[in-house]
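Quick one: structure for this chain?
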Amino acid sequence: MEEDIIEEAEKLLEKRENLEVIKTLKEIQVPDAYVLRSKAYYNLGDKENAIKELEEGIKKFPYSHYLYYELALIFFMENELNRALDEIEKALSIIPYSYDYNKLKAKILFKMEEYEKAYEVLVFVNKLKPDDVESRMMRAECFYRTGKYLDALYEINRALEYNNRDHLLHYLKGKIYLETGYFRLAVSEFKIAISISPSAEYYYYLALAEYMNKEYDKAMNDISKAISIDPNNHKIKEFYESLKNMNK
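Got it. Here's what it folds into:
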């Protein structure tokens, strides 16, 4: 009986019928019910009751590891990173080899700018799931943000082995080449990123790389594309005006 009600509530949640989820599960006190009610409250913008549901569930079911995970997820989304880390550690103390739990821990540490710690967790995450390109991208970002560009490039190239059509990987690779003075290689990577997913940001960096590579006409052409996509972007406007003045 309870399983049928839980299944019904899951379908209601998928339809974003949040009040109906809460009403349907009103008398149900099993871990899944606490999670679903929490999600419904959160969807309604009621963070306080979303947290309260999970905390009550934890009191009744202290070994239900996914209650801690869901609570950590809320704190992470609300940028309460220390609380998020505390809760995910509790989940991992019960299920230490969970892919999802370790990945969330890595994301929390990354957002806390604890890049070395985040990297260590991400290495373990990729042992659990080698084709997780997002985690490999984060590994590269950890190195990039600490100025270890060669290590970052190594991680990007490993990630590209699993998905060479990931525009973010080519974008980050282009930024590394740009910052290390390999402008022609940067141009190539930004062009690939644009061919996969065009954006003002990518055209801006392509124009910058072309400018540094002394391809001034191409730079003007591409910064014009950037400003046509995002005309209110101050960074893009400033570079556009600089190039325009140079061509007078």
